Amino acid sequence: MKPSIQEPNPTGSTFSNPLPMIFHVDMDAFFAAVEVRSDPRLRGQNLVVGGGPGPRGVVTAASYPARRFGIKAGMAMGEALKRCPDLVFLPVDPSKMIFESLQVLEVLDRFTRRLEPASIDEAYLWFPSESSSLWVEKAKALASNIQTTMLMERGLTCSIGVGINKLQAKMASALQKPRGISVIHPNKYLEVFGHRPVGIVPGIGPKTQEVLRGQGVLTVEDLSRLKGASHFTEASEKQLVSFGLGLDERSVIPDSDPKSAGHETTFARDVADPKLLKATLSLLADRVARRLRVGRRQAKTVEVRYKIGKQRFSRQRTLTHFTNQSRDLLRVAWDLLEPARKGKPLRLLGVAGASLHSDTGQSSLVPVDNQLDDVTGIGDRLRDRFGEQTLLPATIYRRSKPKSRNPIGFQPVRRNHGNQ
């Protein structure tokens, strides 16, 4: 199926200075799509993934067939069942979704090192400045390449928005779903969004919309002309006008800088279960360790990052030796995290290795387990050949039913390895 492309602007339109391209990649019905890929019998079904089938359960994600009934994320399960009595329900499998989210990020990481995860199913990507004559065409080509790669390697589709900043890119990605590509020319923001309701702007929720409606502000263009509104502070009004004009000064910030290597994930809902948190941390530590080894680097400092409510925290510890082994990262990260969070649920969790140096194999001041290094090397070679899902941390398996031989429901993607 060929992706639809939103291009309301002629490529001949020019702008004075070369501008960067910001991509917002949004996985289509991510939780539901992962389940459908795991069990193709679910394809075409009115599927919802959520926190429980009872009246107090909440929909986390709905397949596109289910969305035809008006079912969406955040809706009470009881309401969803009223709208569609033959709804197919599956509980959220956090381990599976976190694993797949990391795999999605690894695909995107090949296109640009300047990659910022925004949530478990979306990310921003930055690409260098282009002249006006090439901007739109290069954006379309890159977006199409990303979609094709994601579909071939992960069996998942995504919608992509491209703009000159995060705001425009995120708004663009919502224009055509699923599997849409929407490129917003730098000079045409209001032409594309001006007539649309203010609710399309990220951060403007129902309550703010109601206040704006009382001020006669219904569209994005109305928002761009907002002045002297009685219900907003001067700073808030300035921010809203900026939204209306498509202005956004936020940079795309990678989850790690050159002096560190890290991975983090945002949960669909807050998690307090220590077993799940440790399983998640194990996956993240495994990815960081693998990344260090691929880059021939070792870390001497281990950092754990987490978010309680809206407040972000980090704890770190310097080791007596350098390492690129997941067991070291996990042990230290868990020792830092568990007493610090004091049983409180987390919205975000991450781990990083810092104070990096080149891996010469002679940096340890403590006895090295050569047998472990040999096993790790074998594991890395298996992953290189058969994919990252070939080996997973044991904690992921321990969280699964003993009878399951495929505990996270992952369907391996076959790769062509020539005559090896």
TrEMBL record:
HAMAP family: DNApol_IV (MF_01113). Mg(2+) binds at D26, D121. It catalyses: DNA(n) + a 2'-deoxyribonucleoside 5'-triphosphate = DNA(n+1) + diphosphate. GO terms for molecular function: damaged DNA binding; DNA-directed DNA polymerase activity; magnesium ion binding. This is DNA polymerase IV. The active site is at E122. Its EC number is 2.7.7.7. Its main location: cytoplasm. Residues 399-420 are annotated as: Disordered. It holds the Pfam family IMS_C. Poorly processive, error-prone DNA polymerase involved in untargeted mutagenesis. Copies undamaged DNA at stalled replication forks, which arise in vivo from mismatched or misaligned primer ends. These misaligned primers can be extended by PolIV. Exhibits no 3'-5' exonuclease (proofreading) activity. May be involved in translesional synthesis, in conjunction with the beta clamp from PolIII.
